[in-house]
Every structure is written in C-alpha cells, then in structure tokens.
Amino acid sequence: MAAASEEAIKQFSALMELLEEPLKTTFQHVHQGYPRGTLVRFLKAREWNVPKAHKMLMDSLNWRIQNGIDSVLAKPIVPSDLYRAIRDTLLVGLTGYSKQGQPVYAFGVGLSTLDKASVHYYVQSHIQMNEYRDRVVLPKASKMFGKQINTCLKVMDMTGLKLSALNQIKMLSTITAIDDLNYPEKTETYFIVNAPYVFSACWKVVKPLLQERTKRKIKVLYGSGRDELLKVMDYETLPNFCKREGSGSSNDSSDGVDCYSYDHPFHQELYNYIKQQALDQDFVGPIKQGSMHVDVPTPDLEEAKIVETIKSELHNFSGANGLSHSFNRIKIEGP
User: Which residues does the UniProt record annotate as the domain CRAL-TRIO (predicted)?
Assistant: First the structure.
C-alpha cells in the first residue's frame, strides 16, 4: 500500500505541475508551503483515486477563484455588532491544543440558533474560520510543537439540542458541502458530548449529509466525555462543558470570558487580523458593509432527498414519543 500511495502522490504532483495562473497562485494559498500534504488530503478524500482527487482539487481551486476565497480574510463582517451577534449564535471557539499539538475547537451545537444574520454571513464567518485555521492557527501550532500539524480536533457539545434545531438543516447542508469538498481531512476526530435523548433522532437525519470518511471520524462519548478526552488533551484544554457533568455549553476561560464570545482573545485576534488584512490591501475608503455570496458546491445527496429523510425520521420519532403536536410546529427548509 505504501508503494501504491507514493505512486499516487507522484502522479498527482505531476498533474499539479501543469497548473497555470491564476490556479497556480490559488493552489499556493491552499497548501501554505506544504503541497504534498494537500495532495495527500485530497487523495484520502477520494480513496487514493488520482483522477477523482485531481478533479476534486481542481473544482475546489476554481471555486476559490470564482468566490474570492483567497481574499476572504480581508473582508471583515461589519459593523462589529453584527459580528458579535454571529458569535453569539454560531458557538465556536479555540480552547487550546491536544497532547499531539492539534488545535482543539469547541462547538456549542445544541445552543447555536443561527438566527441573527443571513445565511451568507454565517457561511462567510465559517469560511473565514477555516482559512484562519489553515493560514494562522495550524502554522502557529506547527511552530510551537516543532513538527508539521495539519489537522484539528473538534468537541461538539449537544447540550440544549432540540428537534427544532433541524430547522437549520439547509445551513448545515451548506456548511457540510463546503467543508467536505474544499477542506477535506482537516479534522482528525469529532467528539460528540453531552448528547440528550433527542440526539438519536437528529443523528439519523444529519448522518446522511456526511461523507463516509467523515462518519468514521465521529466518536459519540458518554456524558461529558471527560475521561476519554483527557487521553488526548490536558485538563486545561478541556472545554468547560466537558469538565463536569451537567455543566452546560458555557466555556469560560481562566479570565472568565466565554471561548465562544466575541470578547475572547481568540475571536479578538481573528477579527483584528481580518481588519488589518483589509487595511493592508489598500482598500479605498471605509470598509464596506455586506456579506459575501458564496456559490455552494452541490453535496453528494440532493437537498430534496435530505429534506424528505428528515421529515420521515421526525414523523417516526415524534409519533413514537408523543411529540406530534410539537413536530407540527417545526418548519423544515427546503431547496
């Protein structure tokens, strides 16, 4: 297998040597000085099939060019109150690093409402988080730990998860498609913690959205998952919602600032970085308001089929648990 893998990398590399501008520059933004690692990620995403991996990467590079992704970190979401509202409703933060050096991200899945801005702003913020991870956070981790670090860990807190969260399935599908097709193999493991009973229903309908390789990385842990997580990270890096049972989705750092908050150092550094990038690019006049409109890659499953799956599973779950009345209040967004 090792020989076959090396041959695949060699073939893929030869194809990428043929790139011309602007694809060549965009590829440099993607690999950040480590082209081999990027080729391996896309090969893994397509089961080491060189033609399929090449098509996937070329599609991704063209997507980046068509949507201005290379300059997304120079497009701050303004005013700052709008960015604060996004941070309050799309709960994500950096808590530290694993024992192997991977950045550890906390996600408050159950308490994220995604209801204070348009879908375009949430997508823009998500892409900015991805790009900042790849251009700033991972290189910093590599320097800190003295080795190349290409992946992160994600701890997904399901505290507060309700069936109504599936109202956001369209946005979830959008973000999933963007990550699967343009940022493959960037997350080593997804840890699911504090999962309520309703998670079983939600998991059944979210699971079809995910690529097979992503499903294999997901670990559903008992309760807060503290004991399992301490095998891969120190106590100081644990999200607070994992430090004790029933702690909820708050994740205050030692200085009392929630890691999800706009006021947390990580988010302040990210937002200030984006504003500085905008200034460095010599934008004329004040920074313009308005979201990016990103073309979303088509996921492997058509959205109509996804919506029908959700409706079916919710009907089954609500009927079995006497929740028909509450189910009728849930609106599933379609195409």
Answer: 79-239
HSE, side-chain direction, 13 A CA sphere, residue 280: 11
Question: How does pLDDT run across 64-119, given as a tens digit for each residue?
Answer: 999 999 999 999 999 999 999 999 999 999 999 999 999 999 999 989 999 999 98
Round the CA-based radius of gyration of the chain to a whole number and report it. Answer: 20
What letter would DSSP give residue 328? H
Task: Enumerate the H helices of the chain as residue ranges.
Answer: 2-16, 23-31, 35-45, 50-67, 80-89, 119-132, 138-145, 169-182, 199-206, 212-215, 226-229, 265-280, 303-320, 324-328
Q: CA-CA distance, 150 to 138, in Å (whole number)?
A: 6
Residue type, position 247, single letter: S
Single out the residue of 200, 100, 116 nearest to residue 150, CA to CA.
Answer: 100
> Please, what are the domains in the chain?
2-67 (1.10.8), 76-274 (3.40.525.10)
Residue 219 β-bridge partners: 191
CA dist 132 → 258, 266, 291 (Å): 20, 11, 18
Which residues, other chains included, contact 326 with Cβ-Cβ below 8 Å and sequence gap of 6+? 163, 318
Residue 119: name the closest of 298, 271, 294 by CA: 294
Residue with tokens 């504003």: 275
Output DSSP code: residue 167. Answer: G
Q: Which neighbouring-strand residues pair with 107?
A: 92, 156
Residues 129 and 107: their CA atoms lie apart, in Å, by 12
As given in the structure block, the two tokens for residue 123 are 């997508």
pLDDT tens string 186-216: 999 999 999 888 777 777 777 776 767 778 8
Distance CA 94, CA 288 (A): 28
**3-class state of residue 93 by DSSP:** strand
